[in-house]
UniProtKB/TrEMBL annotation:
<dbReference type="InterPro" id="IPR018094">
    <property type="entry name" value="Thymidylate_kinase"/>
</dbReference>
<keyword id="KW-0808">Transferase</keyword>
<dbReference type="GO" id="GO:0005524">
    <property type="term" value="F:ATP binding"/>
</dbReference>
<keyword id="KW-0547">Nucleotide-binding</keyword>
<dbReference type="GO" id="GO:0006227">
    <property type="term" value="P:dUDP biosynthetic process"/>
</dbReference>
<keyword id="KW-0545">Nucleotide biosynthesis</keyword>
<dbReference type="InterPro" id="IPR027417">
    <property type="entry name" value="P-loop_NTPase"/>
</dbReference>
<feature type="binding site">
    <location>
        <begin position="11"/>
        <end position="18"/>
    </location>
    <ligand>
        <name>ATP</name>
    </ligand>
</feature>
<dbReference type="InterPro" id="IPR039430">
    <property type="entry name" value="Thymidylate_kin-like_dom"/>
</dbReference>
<keyword id="KW-0067">ATP-binding</keyword>
<keyword id="KW-0418">Kinase</keyword>
<dbReference type="Pfam" id="PF02223">
    <property type="entry name" value="Thymidylate_kin"/>
</dbReference>
<feature type="domain" description="Thymidylate kinase-like">
    <location>
        <begin position="9"/>
        <end position="197"/>
    </location>
</feature>
<dbReference type="GO" id="GO:0005829">
    <property type="term" value="C:cytosol"/>
</dbReference>
<protein>
    <recommendedName>
        <fullName>Thymidylate kinase</fullName>
        <ecNumber>2.7.4.9</ecNumber>
    </recommendedName>
</protein>
<comment type="similarity">
    <text>Belongs to the thymidylate kinase family.</text>
</comment>
<dbReference type="GO" id="GO:0004798">
    <property type="term" value="F:dTMP kinase activity"/>
</dbReference>
Length: 204
């Protein structure tokens, strides 16, 4: 039985998720809320092993395999970490969740959305985040922000058009689910993004 709240943060590369997660963590702690940070793919012992496989630059795989592994990792994540934490009344803040599968595997890879929805039904059985913060930034700005990083992982090696499709898919999901997915302009300063997030979180 869920008692805590489940918040996810998503967006294209370089939108500032990692930066804002720390802000949200501090904000909620200051309100006296116990919150754990987690991420996808990953978040559990098995999930982190699957993450390494998914992101390794030499893991060539079929797009369906990629999708199935994302959901296999998610299944472990939900059962070993997310649901038990929520049941004890604590909150969970996840760096990415199912919306990323719709955006990257659906939008980016062009996989059939109905297949993703079938996996979502099977694995999540109606369970959804209470709120999703979608950090939106034009792809070229996001890429410039992460340009100084070292070697790119397997998904980061995709081209600009892939990430544009990912962004478009995120935006259309926020239009489809406006109550849950809060679209946030992340193209300006980190402080500007944090201020928008704070306003939205205060409504919870
Ligand atoms: N993936 C998938 O395909 N399907 C799925 O179902 C799931 C995931 C769950 C791993 O995700 C990959 O998995 C990801 C999607 C795929 N692939 N890609 N690409 P990840 O979240 O671990 O990795 P990531 O997307 O590469 O995250 P990221 O690059 O770390 O993005 P970020 O967290 O949004 O960026 P950041 O580290 O906060 O910020 C990047 C830099 O910009 C950093 O130097 C900051 O200091 C700077 N920054 C942040 N905010 C600002 C502002 N406002 N202005 C200027 N500079 C800023």
């Amino acid at each position: 039985m869920q008692k805590g709240k489940f918040i996810t943060i998503d967006g294209v590369e370089g939108a500032g998720k990692s930066t804002q997660i720390n802000f949200i963590f501090d904000y909620l702690n200051n309100k006296g809320i116990n919150v754990i940070l987690t991420r996808e793919p990953g978040g559990s012992d098995i999930g982190e092993k699957i993450r390494a496989l998914l992101l390794s630059a030499d893991s060539n795989m079929h797009s369906d395999t990629e999708l199935l592994l994302m959901f296999a990792a998610r299944n472990e994540h939900i059962h070993t970490k997310i649901l038990p934490t929520l049941a004890q009344g604590d909150w969970v803040l996840s760096d990415r969740f199912t919306d990323a599968s719709y955006a990257y595997q659906g939008g980016g890879r062009g996989l059939d959305i109905t297949r993703i929805a079938q996996l979502e039904d099977w694995v999540l059985q109606g369970f959804k985040p209470d709120m999703t913060l979608l950090l939106d930034v034009p792809v070229d700005i996001g890429m410039k922000r992460v340009a100084s990083r070292g070697a790119k992982d397997r998904i980061e090696q995709e081209d600009l058009s892939f990430f544009k499709r990912v962004r478009d898919a995120y935006i259309s999901r926020s239009e489809q689910y406006p109550k849950r997915i809060k679209l946030i302009d992340a193209s300006q300063s980190a402080e500007h993004t944090s201020a928008q997030i704070q306003t939205i979180l205060s409504t919870l």
